[in-house]
Amino acid sequence: MSSASVQLLEQLIALPSVNPLLTAPDDPDAGEGRVTDFLQNFAQQQGWPWLRQSVHPGRDNFLALVGFGPNSVSEPPQGGAQAAPMLFEAHQDTVSTEGMTCNPFDAKHAQGRLYGRGACDVKGGMAAMLVALAEIGTDPDLPRPVLFASTINEECGFTGVRALAELWSDTNGTSNHQTHGTLSSETVARLKPRAAVVAEPTELDVVVSHRGVARWQVETHGRAAHSSQPSEGANAIYAMASIVRAVQLYESEVLAQRPEDPRCGRPTVSVTTFHGGTGANTVPEIAAVNIDRRLSPEETPEEAFAELSRWIEEHAELLDCTVAHQPPWMQSHGLAEGDNLPLAKRLSNIAREVADTGQLKGVPYGANAATLATAGISTVVFGPGSIAQAHTADEWIEVEQLEKAVEIYRRLALDLEE
User: Fold this and answer.
1) I need a surface site. Which of 134, 154, 266, 384 has the fewest CB within 10 A?
2) Which parts of the sequence belong to the Peptidase M20 dimerisation domain (predicted)?
C-alpha cells in the first residue's frame, strides 16, 4: 500500500499547474488554480485556518496556520521570540509539459521512482511538507505555530513570494493584493516567521546559499530595405550579432576573472533567445535577444543590469543601428549564508540522522528563499529529489527520499530551538 506522501503526490501531479507564462494562452493545463483549490480543501479537512492572497488574476498564493502552540488564532501573539512560527514554503507552478516522454499528469511508478510533471519540482516537497504538518498539527508538544505557504509564479518571476513577503512588511498585513479566507492578513502579519524552509529538490542536503538572476531583453533598431539593396538599410541582426559577441567577451574578460564563490561558483551570463527579421528578402529592421545573468549571492540585479548594459554600449559595433535595453522582466537577489546557519545546522543534523544526508551547500539556480531572507526571515532550501530531474522530459523523484523528507520536516517542526 502506498504511503500517505506518495498518495498525496499522485493527487498533486494529477492537477495541472503549468505556469501560464511558459505555455500558450489557451493551454487548458495553464494556471495554478487547481492546486490552490486543492490546498484550501486540504487545510479545511485538517481544520487549519487558511488565507488566499490574489497576486495575478486567477492566481493566488495560499497560506495556512498549523497548530497554535501556546497561542490561538483569536488571540494571535503580539510579538516576541516565543511567538514566532516556522514557515514551510513550496511553490505551486511547474514548467510546461512540452516534449515529455511520460504522461505528465498521470503518475507512473517504476524502480522506486514516481514520474510526472512536478514530481521533484516541487510537488514532491509540497506533499512531504503537508503530510508532516498533518501529523503534527494536533501535537500538544508543538513548540510554536507553523505556517505553510504555497506561492505562484516561482518559475517565471518570483512575484508570488514577493507578495507573500509583503504580509510581513511594516504595513500591518496590508498590501496591494486582496486576501480572503478564515485567517486574516492582520493575524498573519503578527505571525512573522523567524525561520523558513523553502522546498526545492536538493537531494535532502541543506542549501544555505544560491545565485540570483536577472533576465532582460535587448533590442537593436535599424532600417528596413529590400535585400537587393542592403546598403539602403541598417541591418539590425548584424548589430545584434556584435552585441552577442560583446556578451561573450564580457563573460570571458569580466565574469571569468572574478573570485569564485566557495559554494555557488562564479556569476555567469547567457544569451538564451534570438529573434529578428520579417522575411528572407528584407533587411531586418529589428532584432532582439534575451539575456540571462546569474548573480553571485553578493550581487544585486540592478548592478548586474547596469554593468552589462554599459559594457555593450562600449564594446558592440551598432552599424548605424540603435540599441534599447528593456528593464529586467525577471530579477531576484541571491541567498547569502550567514544568519541562516543556526537553522541550517539543526536541519543538517536531523537529515543526517534520518537519511545520512544534510550536507551544507550552495547551488547555481535561484529560489524563493532569497526574497524571504530579504524580508528578515532566516531561510534555507531543502527538499527531496534532484535538480537534475527538474524540468526534464521524464521528471521523477525517488520514493525513498520523498518518505524520508516527511520525517525530516516533522522533526524540524517539533525540534525548533530559539
Assistant:
1) 266
2) 208-316
